[in-house]
Amino acid sequence: MWFVLTSPLLVLSFALPQASAHPQRTHHHRLATPRAEPVAAAWYAGWHATDGFLLSDVSWDKYNTLIYSFLETTPDVHNLSLNGSEPSVFPQFVSEAHKHGVAAHVALGGWTASRWFSSNVATADNRTAFVKAVTDFCRQYDVDGVNIDWEYPNSQGTGCNTISPNDTQNFLAFLQELRKDPVGAKLTISAATSILPFIDATGSHSTDVTGFAEVFDYITVMNYDVFGPWSAAVGPNAPLNDTCAPPDDQVGSAVTAVKAWTAAGMPLNKIVLGVAAYGHSF
Ligand SMILES: *[C@@H]1O[C@H](CO)[C@@H](O)[C@H](O)[C@H]1NC(C)=O
Ligand SMILES: *[C@@H]1O[C@H](CO)[C@@H](O)[C@H](O)[C@H]1NC(C)=O
Ligand SMILES: *[C@@H]1O[C@H](CO)[C@@H](O)[C@H](O)[C@H]1NC(C)=O
Ligand SMILES: *[C@@H]1O[C@H](CO)[C@@H](O)[C@H](O)[C@H]1NC(C)=O
Ligand SMILES: *[C@@H]1O[C@H](CO)[C@@H](O)[C@H](O)[C@H]1NC(C)=O
């Protein structure tokens, strides 16, 4: 059951370091993100920004990218909201990141805020409006990249998301339009994904993600919360290999993720492994 990959517990962790292969696409960032280097990123939990983990607690020198979580989708395709994540801290986040030579990204969506992705990308008009909402936000706050965390296209997440069989194709059409926008063309665009590729209109995991490989700089695979107290069996939070769990309980791993995404056409050098910096008790 793939839903366990991103249970709400995910959002309790505020820094999930990632290590990766080498994204090959070069953008002309105002901030020279060192593209020859692996992506070294962490998600910063905006909702802990004044209580728990302050900006001053960030080890900026360990990263070339920090991702502020979460910018939320709203019922109005023209609007995005930082409401749940200390909006007043966000401009400071961007300027602190830049001061340290770190690219400032924003995570859009997440477990609780993916509710309106499907309707936002459902029609050509909505995609155009959503592109404008995202690029306006990035321009307004001088953001270097967007990590799109739609949980999940054509697969229900938190329970009340809008959803359509066409989600994955509409998502791609949205991303293609975002890339055509002069602001969008310069952004580093990534997606936080499940272990297996997006569900397509047939209801199965996509076997061809080459279109996505063209528009994403990289994907960040959420290989954590694979097992936790919600699971029927005890298992590793972030398994390197399926064999980390007993044969009957295996539900995926980093090895499975890399196999599935590369088999579907995502180049190895565009896959960043999400690594948990925390564990679960059972
Ligand atoms: C969207 O933004 C506009 C302009 O800021 C505002 O008037 C409207 O209430 C917002 N809609 C929602 C659903 O928040
Ligand atoms: C932000 O939160 C306030 C208070 O909870 C609410 O009234 C407002 O509609 C929210 N705005 C958006 C865009 O979600
Ligand atoms: C387009 O977006 C609006 C919200 O701004 C929404 O009400 C509408 O349902 C969306 N269209 C579709 C087909 O989902
Ligand atoms: C899905 O897209 C096809 C065209 O590609 C369209 O005919 C169909 O109505 C769409 N389905 C939904 C549920 O929007
Ligand atoms: C994963 O497990 C399989 C089966 O035991 C093994 O062949 C493979 O080498 C393992 N991969 C890694 C990265 O440990």
UniProtKB/TrEMBL annotation:
Domain called GH18: residue spans: 38-282
Q: Which SMART domains match?
A: Glyco_18
State the GO CC annotations: extracellular region
**What superkingdom heads the lineage?**
Eukaryota
Q: Which keywords does the record carry?
A: Carbohydrate metabolism, Chitin degradation, Glycosidase, Hydrolase, Polysaccharide degradation, Signal
Q: Does the keyword Hydrolase apply?
A: yes
Describe the reaction catalysed, as an equation.
Random endo-hydrolysis of N-acetyl-beta-D-glucosaminide (1->4)-beta-linkages in chitin and chitodextrins
Q: Which parts form a coiled-coil structure per UniProt? A: none
Which positions make up the signal peptide? 1-21
What's the family?
Belongs to the glycosyl hydrolase 18 family.
What name does the UniProt record give this protein?
Glycoside hydrolase family 18 protein
Organism, scientific name: Paxillus rubicundulus Ve08.2h10
